[in-house]
Design a protein that fits this description.
alpha+beta; globular
Amino acid sequence: MYEVTIGYDDEAEAFVRFTFDVQGREESVFDVSYALRHTVDLSSDWTEVVLMGEDDEHDTISEPIGNDIRVDRSYVPTQIFRRFAEFRSGVKVVLDVSLTKGGGRDETGRTRTLKTLQEVVPALPNAETVVCSETDVRIQYIHDPKHANYSHSLSALSNPAT
């Protein structure tokens, strides 16, 4: 298991992997398996993401992208859902409920699994995939209306993590 610190670098004006001096070498990826061996299950590969605040008072659950920048509590899983239509076989994204609308703001310790678009599409009323015979490029058209009785779309109701 490895630890990487990612953040915004004002000089580079971009998000970067921060490096740290380790015995005279600049390192940005640290093997933390030994330190975690007694606290977590290391029998399978996994990635943990920890949002570090801008200061001690920064609530990264309600303001994950910066102090005084309010977003939905489900901002992080929603961004993952919007960016990845599917995950590689065997990949599972598990989120603490504090990062989802379905969990309480101060609740933690329970998890939800993030579904991908391809897992949600069968629950939608109208979806069609068109394939270009020359290039094999596939375009997926999806109609994702709001549910008649809720303020959420059908895909959101099928994916409580977003």
